[in-house]
Protein 1
Amino acid sequence: MTRDAILLTPGPLTTTLRTKLAMLKDWGSWDADFNAITARLRARLLDIVDGHDSHVVVPLQGSGTFSVEAAVATLVPRDGHVLVPDNGAYCKRAGKLTQMMGRKATVLPCAENQPISAAAVDERLQADASITHVVLIHCETGTGVENPLAEVAAVCRRHGKGLIVDAMSSFAALPIDARALQFDALIAASGKCLEGVPGMGFVFIRKAVLDACAGNSQSLAMDLHDQHVYMGKTGQWRFTPPTHVMAALDEAVAQFVEEGGQPARLQRYTDNCRTLVEGMTKLGFRPFLKAEVQAPIIVTFHAPARPNYDFKRFYEGAKQRGFILYPGKLTEVDTFRVGCIGAIGRHEMQQAVNAVAETLQEMGIPDGTPAP
Amino acid sequence: MTRDAILLTPGPLTTTLRTKLAMLKDWGSWDADFNAITARLRARLLDIVDGHDSHVVVPLQGSGTFSVEAAVATLVPRDGHVLVPDNGAYCKRAGKLTQMMGRKATVLPCAENQPISAAAVDERLQADASITHVVLIHCETGTGVENPLAEVAAVCRRHGKGLIVDAMSSFAALPIDARALQFDALIAASGKCLEGVPGMGFVFIRKAVLDACAGNSQSLAMDLHDQHVYMGKTGQWRFTPPTHVMAALDEAVAQFVEEGGQPARLQRYTDNCRTLVEGMTKLGFRPFLKAEVQAPIIVTFHAPARPNYDFKRFYEGAKQRGFILYPGKLTEVDTFRVGCIGAIGRHEMQQAVNAVAETLQEMGIPDGTPAP
């Protein structure tokens, strides 16, 4: 097959040719032309959350997890105490990286198939005054569930606790308004709903807490305060930026704006998600989550309850037809995931459903019905 | 000007169009086709140092500095003690990141215009038995000086100390043979002498010390032991890899092999460096380093001793003519730097010298002669 496969994965995802073509140029990382890209991108990212008054945004090399770790290291003092409500794999990862760097972290176990309860966070903050920060995963990509950002933000504000939001999978698709919500940090990355290529993240930091962040980080490379101060002085990154990834993101954000920004993107992804779920449901598949808690980002489906079902063969069948699926990330239930994000629309989603149907047929599986 | 400028900078640098074209495809990070790139690249990197028997190589997201920090965090135990011989900015950075992460670091000040003395390292190791590791910058990009890797490696081996080599600017250009030299870790990055694009680094780790690295890192994202174990089990990166950067590096390494590997690259860079230094010397410029300690990677020149010299104008003049120079990094002497690396040859270097001559003329500066 010579046509590129469509990535139905939660990042890296399918980007437009225009975005990729922006990488056909080498930029001097010290040069004014590149600094202009950095400055423009920072301004446009702040536009997306209406955060110019309240926040700064600091880009960082590496995958999104690097930015999550950097946000915790920069925002949380060495003697801080982080509460991590946990309803999935990315919550667990945030708890782990917090503990590894030597910050105290309390993980609050929550049901995997439900949004985190703001009331449970409230209760926990009430019970333990030593907690300084809450880390919330906005859209838990392990399942695809949307967590109640506004409610948890309100709880944190009422208790006077810092809120760090991992908005990796939701930023630019779900609405986030810095004027309406108070968060100390919010993290996203280039290769997710902005539809850039992977290689960098960025962290919004509330101006009111910025100065207190100086000296918190025990990592030089991940010190977002230092990165911010240096960028302010020089317009440059402290260490070699991923110049081509930046140029692609700049071009991706231009297309995001042209498309109509976050509302338009949400509409497209919602349409993708609906097309997918309806089509798969007709084939007998059952989503792991109830529709009302499903974010239109990535959908977890139960595996078909047939002895001749095997994810590897199923994956290969869909891939041969031009669609890259994603494995499940749940330990107790056999599932697989399908992303709804990237530079694709309902037609691609319908074609993916058709490819799944053909694959089932090829495997001798009559339908996708899971175990009851 | 529509033609892309040539980057005479120490990375990001000028890459071939073939390398950049490899980025025009989106890869699923979980997919077997992408895992094959990772596996092929790891094997080819080991080829370059003849390290298959002695070392593994672990790629990491982020700039080269992220990989340096990761190497120290992964290799040096929490109660370790690192000696950093310091003859420039990148040595100082290595010392700083070691101290920030809570490892004891002793910085050994050395003259900036001279290679580090292996005898001084020997003496220091003799005097302080608590030192566990030495961090050596192979080519100190702050000035361009080549440090004596083989001699320092021999000293470390004799004392039974671990050696961590930052070979960011030298790897793939200067000879490094893992069969002849003993090093515990050696670090380089995608956007340097391999002529890929920036966005990832990689660390060679000696197999004999690998197991003892488990649990050293206080950073999840930078834990190279964990990254290695996971890659061994799954063939995948732990966190989203910079897929396009990887694809470009894979293509860049293919061209590196076709060119004739490290000896051919060294020859080309040596030729570039000679063309540059001869041409600039004819214009009256004086290199900061003596020829015998100058690595053919980046050359520091003294600024011309003329009142109408101004680096910004000088830089702009060269840039208008299609060449991106690099600022100096010395605090006490006014200098600028010119890189000799990237997908360029002697003709581009001669054209750069011509552009510098024209720029001087435009600025009304008769020649590049520095203050005596």
Protein 2
Amino acid sequence: MQQPLDTSAIASALADLGCLLGDRVTAADAVREHHSHGESTHTPALPDLVCFPLSTQEVSEVVKVSARCRLPVVPFGAGTSLEGQVHAVRGGICLDMRRMNRVLRVSTADMDVTVEAGMSRTQLVKALESTGLTFFIDPGADATIGGMVSTRASGTTAVRYGTMRENVLGLTVVLADGRVIHTGTRARKSSAGYDLTHLFVGAEGTLGVITEVTLRLHTWPEAVAVAVGAFPSVKDAVEAVIEVIQLGLGVARIEFMDERMVAAVNSYSRLELAAMPTLLFEFHGISQSQVAEMVRLADQLAREHGASHLTWEASPDGRERLWRARHDAYYAARSLRPGSQVLTTDVCVPISRLAECIVATRADLDRLSFSATIVGHVGDGNFHVLCLLGAEQNEEGDAFAHRLVERAHAMGGTCTGEHGVGYGKKKYLLAEHGDALDTMRALKRTLDPENRMNPGKIVDLD
Amino acid sequence: MQQPLDTSAIASALADLGCLLGDRVTAADAVREHHSHGESTHTPALPDLVCFPLSTQEVSEVVKVSARCRLPVVPFGAGTSLEGQVHAVRGGICLDMRRMNRVLRVSTADMDVTVEAGMSRTQLVKALESTGLTFFIDPGADATIGGMVSTRASGTTAVRYGTMRENVLGLTVVLADGRVIHTGTRARKSSAGYDLTHLFVGAEGTLGVITEVTLRLHTWPEAVAVAVGAFPSVKDAVEAVIEVIQLGLGVARIEFMDERMVAAVNSYSRLELAAMPTLLFEFHGISQSQVAEMVRLADQLAREHGASHLTWEASPDGRERLWRARHDAYYAARSLRPGSQVLTTDVCVPISRLAECIVATRADLDRLSFSATIVGHVGDGNFHVLCLLGAEQNEEGDAFAHRLVERAHAMGGTCTGEHGVGYGKKKYLLAEHGDALDTMRALKRTLDPENRMNPGKIVDLD
């Protein structure tokens, strides 16, 4: 996959970047190796050089060097992506954004914040501690904000607070020729021209490098309640979810775990949940009484759908323990088979088809030789399968993942709800988008005619 | 502004379109005149031909005729736009979309609906009556859904339910060469490639013709309360709004009227509101008790900011009367000076700057020779000025509108929160977007290289 680049171009770029960045550029093997992969099972691919810019201006200069030397540019955040987004499949210059991690401004009145793209989610949440506001989007990993913008990340709270699509208000972007543009305004809404912000959200660095992000913030709820309940079947659980959403209860999270995921979580996190299809709910409200009412209605709905073992956790400790267990699901799954590779895949379907999709997926898995658990952001119709693969099972795993995408497509869904395309899911975009893929390719060609911006991801030009 | 087109091209197009559409194409003067303008004071501009397509396929065929004959294509909905979006400034073929007004599918489980673009907002709300769901976005006018998508419309409920930006899940679009693409999927979220949906939302038909729209729906609230209150100053009113939002009360609407607007509304709608800066609130909740709690907290906050004459309307009739009055604000303003032209303009600023912006705007107005009222979706930082112009006051009105945009820009805002660009506000996009305007122009050139799709709006290529 990786093609050797012109070594003189690399040497020339290194000389230029050295003048610009001093010791913040390197060709050292250990650093290149660290920047050659995300957290997936995709084959690593090394960049030739790694830079550590401190400002939008420096990113612009690096991109100009890449233009002059005709080298690819690959933005790198926390390295937590799952579809090979940060793999330098054609070598080139890796832009490690982690040193650009400042809060540039925050406004409590406007409930928004502007940060540099290399700030991580937990850094941001910590920086907001004194404001009474927070940023709720949580993909699980401690990704950078720029990375989250670029994969259109979401996670457990999207059912209430939206995904990155709904929470990015504006961007600073370095284009392929090094020009810097600002998208959006600080007004909460605008009808003034094409929506460039959303063009870069989810573009995985293939149209430009995001250096600054303005985000919408939310108020910390006055009251929170968390529940866990077991259901007789996936169908019952999903029907309860649909009704909870239709009621307009404003549920903040609804997570699903299948019985195997529950068993793994019990063992890993020392819980004693019933090994049945399980839902975790979280409600946010302006007062204890409001949340109590949500709880009462949700409890009633859940019982109507056969829920048992319903436990409401009002204490912060109890809630924390449950969510910690949910967040550790990946590690819990892996612990089922120490030493295995974990293939994590992700689809999203209309919620009306979700139960059917999960049941068919479980039936498919039950015919295979490897273990797997299912966990999902069920309020969005989004679920993940964690496949525990031994040395000889990669092909079987890939074939399963392929069938999963076909199943999601057949149900009007998407090949990825939140992990993104990278190079792992490029092959599914034609089936998903049809002729619209040509339009995507035309946009890429317009903004990056030389195909230097994270080439080989999302769409190919050659 | 209007340039004569090649009459043989028009005759040739008419012949082709006649074969395709029969009597659903016309060059009749009365029909052309009807399709030459929206509701603004901008100079009308006639299309050469008007078509009434019944399907995406017919729209595609019409666009292919436009390509062959090199004629512009201007989509037309309800004709309620305010910045000249539907004016055929270069003549060509007007596509009247109103006969494409069917619901194609609705899903209560998924809380979404797909409609043809020519369906109007009230047609949609009526069609949803039996579902328990509704579509809350309400720009005031009974616009078509396609028109609302195209101007990124919003209105009174955006503070809670978002604008068209947040509520369009997918589109069917006819591109400039007649190809049909589908954007988005029926899944609630996706990370699978570039966000084409948002590229067409707000593009005013300049990148393609929208023929079908998939929209997110919302649950009708179980309980609703409406309040009206007078404040000692604009600043007090806006500060109350900021705190209500920060509390996370989930307010569904917060509308502002300045004292002159209140006086006009009192007179026109036979109300007896105090002629002071006034807020209308609406709360939606899952139960009477939940709404009662919101009301209690909002009431307390409003009083802390000096609110008087606070009246809560729980009865449907009382609420209806207040909102009818708010919706009739345009007619109320016009009745202040019968026979005048109403210049309606629209900016949006960060809410932290809103009070300052309104106060400065009122001071500006007080120096001018015409009357004007201010009304706004204050929860979004968005407000409108309705200027009542006599025959000799157009220049003075335009100069005022220009200063208003400059004021909004200086405060980090936008030249239009919801009315769009059309040709009326094209001149402000460079100041607002800087180099990003080049990127917009590049997108236009990519998707419409011959500049046939609603030319002369948003960006110019020539």
